[in-house]
Amino acid sequence: MKRLREQLEVFKKCRHLPWHQRVLRFTSGVLDAYHLHLSESLVTNLLAIVVGLLSGYGAVAFRFLIATFTRFWSEIGIPYMENSIPVLGRWAFIPVPVIGLVLVSILVHKFAEETSGSGISHVMEAVALRRARIRGRVAVVKTLASSICIGFGGSAGREGPIVQIGAAIGSVTASLLRMSKERRKWLVACGAGAGIAATFNAPIAGVIFAMEVILHGSSLRSFASIVLATVSGSVIGRMYFGDVPSFVVPEYSYESNLEILFYMILGGFAAIAGIAYIRVLYWTQDFFEFLKLHFAARAALAGLIIGILGSL
Asked: Which site from 51, 269, 284, 312 is most exposed, i.e. has the minimal number of CB atoms within 10 Å?
């Protein structure tokens, strides 16, 4: 207790330092006082687990908000409009994505413009060009904006948003601890992989995504830490969502080697469809930028198109 009181006195004398530096100095002082010297690899693994747990809870909050908004419109909002304005009929869904995308555009434009789009490209850009620095507000804005977009019927998925949310958590953790650029990249990859693992119950996919997409396979030394982060995120996801896969593959049997030919043909068609989808996506983005409308008006027009397509 005497050693602990001494370290508390040191903590009080460091009031001129930022709070995180005071905490770190107090922690290191306690460890030294009790001769608890931690190896660098142990500290690295502990940080990976912490980031994995935080990213897992970020995924839980993200999915909770999506479910809340979806349940509101499906059980309250749309039935109310159908009863209040019977002439709308099945077209009562049209205003929902319009409202949602306008709200999303305001959030993104006013608070964090880097949260626009899927989010994966922004993370890759931050790692490659901005020393893996991602603002802390990105995690909050991306969680709220993406959950509104999906919950209000927007055509988006969970992968891109949760990658950016987890990456922001990793980057902020590294910034608070004043870590180097390389270690910040590593924590960003840990957060992104853990987010994937938690929201899709896919720890192996989270590891592969973090290593290949975020780090480009260039840092095998961080492989063990990324595994710990993704497993930690997956544990949090299973605690809240259960031990079930996000995508259930029906049972099938392999009867003949001739089937391989049809799998190859299917893969070719899937590749063509993927290329077409990417080109149409970029063409649509260029088209909306060409319109030179106010950002809220562009969002409303996009929501109107989604609403009409969703009501057909």
From this structure: 312
Q: Please determine, for residue 257, whether its predicted confidence score (pLDDT) is greater than 90.
A: no
Q: For residue 276, give both structure tokens.
A: 């077409």
Residue 270 predicted with pLDDT over 80: yes
Q: What is the reported pTM?
A: 0.82
- Nearest CA among 104, 67, 74 for reference residue 92: 74
What's the rounded Cα separation, in Å, for the pair 74 and 311?
A: 14
Distant-in-sequence, close-in-space partners of 146: CB < 8 Å, separation ≥ 6: 62, 104, 115, 119, 156, 158, 160, 161
Res 266: pLDDT:
95
The average confidence (pLDDT) of the chain is 84
Q: What percent of the chain has pLDDT over 90?
A: 32
Tokens encoding 277: 């989808």
Query: How is the chain classified by DSSP, letter by letter?
Result: -HHHHHHHHHHHHTTTS-HHHHHHHHHHHHHHHTT-PPPHHHHHHHHHHHHHHHHHHHHHHHHHHHHHHHHHIIIIIHHHHHHH-GGGGGGGGTHHHHHHHHHHHHHHHHH-GGG-SSSHHHHHHHHHHSTT---THHHHHHHHHHHHHHHTT-S--SHHHHHHHHHHHHHHHHHHTT--HHHHHHHHHHHHHHHHHHHHT-HHHHHHHIIIIISTT--GGGHHHHHHHHHHHHHHHHHHH-S--SSPPPP-----TTHHHHHHHHHHHHHHHHHHHHHHHHHHHHHHHHT---HHHHHHHHHHHHHHHHH-
Query: For 241-259, what is the mean pLDDT?
Result: 81
Q: Which residues contact 119 (CB under 8 A, 6 or more apart)?
A: 142, 146, 160, 161, 163, 164, 165
What mean pLDDT do residues 299-312 have? 88
